[in-house]
Amino acid sequence: MQRDPAPSSNEGAGYAAACYALAGRIEQAREVIDELPDRNRYVAAGIVFNVGHPVADAGDDSSAGPIMELVIDYWPNHYMALYHAAMAEYGLGQNDRVRKHLTEFLDLYEANDGWRRNATRVLARLDAALGEAR
How far apart are CA 121 and CA 127, in angstroms? Predict the structure, then answer.
């Protein structure tokens, strides 16, 4: 990034932010995106999602969670980022955030498929655990 900075465009900012995010440097990724006009930040966040999506699919919860949270900050209704953030948080035991993100995911995502069924199952597990704790 120091020798060959990204082009100054929405896409360039997105790839630069993705590089920082993959390196765990979320605040630097945020700084890059924040330099864009408000109306263009979601474009960069979409690139960060596309680059970070394989990390989430690989199950690296500690790495994927912050990347997906970054995407949600700029694109709050990105249903797949909500889903992957929730799954990462579930793996890390952050149940309040899991419930919030999965509820938002289910409000946005209507397909009756494996993602929706899994989200429903995880919420049911959380409800069962809460009931047992009472």
Answer: 10
